[in-house]
Amino acid sequence: MQYIIFLLPLLAIFMMMRSQKKRQAQAQTMQSTLQPGAGVRTIGGMYALVKAVNDETVELEVAPGVVAHYTKGAIAAVLEPLEYDAIINGRPAEDESAEDAVEEADADEKPLSLSKDEAKADSEAPESK
């Protein structure tokens, strides 16, 4: 019975160390498979394209023509090309046709104006009976 008191904390420590080693192995595998042209997310939440992979660093294009150097450990995830494109461009291409139809329907409506001059003119205009 007294052994359980000593074995439970040791078992918990062993399990925590094991899961941490698994996460480190996954991160190491991801970092070793980085390829130029891949979309990535950094640990700070920035999305970028990999331009070059060096021994300890990666060159990321954070904006067109802007390249920054990061350590490989700063890469949180390598994204699929479609996922990266959807994040950067807002949404997948198939949603654009639905947006165009909504814009055409809204084009016929009078735009809402918050101008005081127009509100005053509307309140002073005589009503037709």
How would you summarize what this structure contains?
By secondary structure, the protein is α+β, with helices and mostly antiparallel strands. The chain is 47% helix and 22% strand. The chain has four helices and five strands.
Structural features, described:
This protein is α+β, with helices and mostly antiparallel strands and 129 residues long. The chain has four helices and five strands, in the order H-E-E-E-E-E-H-H-H. The chain has helices at 2-32, 81-89, 95-106, 116-124, and strands spanning 39-42, 47-53, 57-63, 66-71, 75-79. A five-stranded antiparallel sheet has the order 4-3-2-1-5. The longest helix is centred in the N-terminal third of the chain and has 31 residues, at 2-32. It is flat and about 80 Å long. The model has no long low-confidence stretch (mean pLDDT 77).
